[in-house]
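for the recovery benchmark. tokens below, seq after
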């Protein structure tokens, strides 16, 4: 009897414990996803394409607008939105206190302050993550760049990453040491690579051109020599023929000339040279 009561109590306790665990998990809020930034690291002074992937976290709603704010204390000369299906970008710029060099050597007096993407299609059947890309550069001389992103949903909810009233951590790009090769490439675009180009002309490229010219000269000389030898051979043969006469053979007796209808093959004449 006691054993039966103990077994029943154990079963009841197990059921109650499972129910408590289930209620606890249901009441706990789901872990919020962050923005995925690709890439997460780049060299200072370079130009790259950044992609922001935003999660869709509102059941029954979808993202209608995304706003990207650039850091005011780290101005970037050129920031351009890339073409993305279903989204239309709008760019807002601000004047720069000090002009900045652009990616291709120009001087920029304005910088992009923000980009706002607006969804231009109907609500999607399913809500996959939103992927938006920008071309950006030259990257500033700093350790990192923090971006501010605001995501607006169709139900009126807004989620903010970064900024003074951030709800989520800001997407950040870590900056490494500048790439000397990239810096040299920018110098070439701005006209600073002229000396390098002249040096290249006097180096391997010039040597290759000289070799090609020498080979062509030898080919032409060989053709000219062959033509001269051929002309000399023709001249010698013509001289031999001009000095040759037709004389009767010493061992042949004079006879009648062979006519057109004759079948005689007597060798009565021979060619001699003087």
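predicted aa per position
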């Amino acid at each position: 009897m006691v054993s039966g009561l103990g077994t029943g109590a154990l079963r009841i306790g197990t059921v109650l414990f499972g129910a408590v665990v289930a209620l606890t998990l249901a009441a706990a809020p789901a872990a919020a996803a962050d923005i995925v930034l690709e890439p997460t690291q780049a060299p200072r002074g370079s130009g790259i394409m950044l992609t922001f992937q935003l999660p869709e976290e509102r059941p029954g709603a979808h993202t209608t607008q995304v706003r990207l704010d650039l850091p005011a204390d780290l101005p970037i000369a050129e920031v351009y939105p890339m073409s993305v299906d279903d989204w239309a970008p709008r760019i807002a710029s601000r004047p720069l206190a000090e002009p900045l060099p652009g990616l291709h050597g120009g001087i920029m007096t304005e910088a992009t302050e923000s980009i706002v993407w607006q969804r231009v299609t109907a609500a999607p059947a399913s809500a996959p993550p939103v992927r938006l890309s920008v071309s950006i550069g030259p990257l500033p001389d700093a350790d990192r760049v923090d971006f501010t992103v605001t995501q607006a949903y169709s139900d009126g909810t807004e989620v903010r990453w970064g900024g003074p009233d951030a709800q989520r951590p800001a997407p950040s790009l870590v900056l490494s040491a500048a790439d000397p090769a990239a810096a040299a490439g920018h110098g070439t675009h701005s006209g600073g690579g002229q000396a390098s180009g002249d040096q290249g002309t006097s180096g391997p490229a010039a040597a290759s051109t000289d070799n090609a010219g020498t080979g062509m000269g030898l080919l032409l000389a060989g053709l000219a020599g062959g033509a001269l030898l051929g002309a000399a051979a023709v001249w010698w043969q013509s001289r031999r023929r001009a000095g040759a006469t037709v004389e009767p053979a010493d061992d042949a007796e004079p006879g009648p000339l062979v006519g057109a209808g004759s079948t005689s093959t007597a060798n009565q004449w021979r060619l001699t040279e003087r």
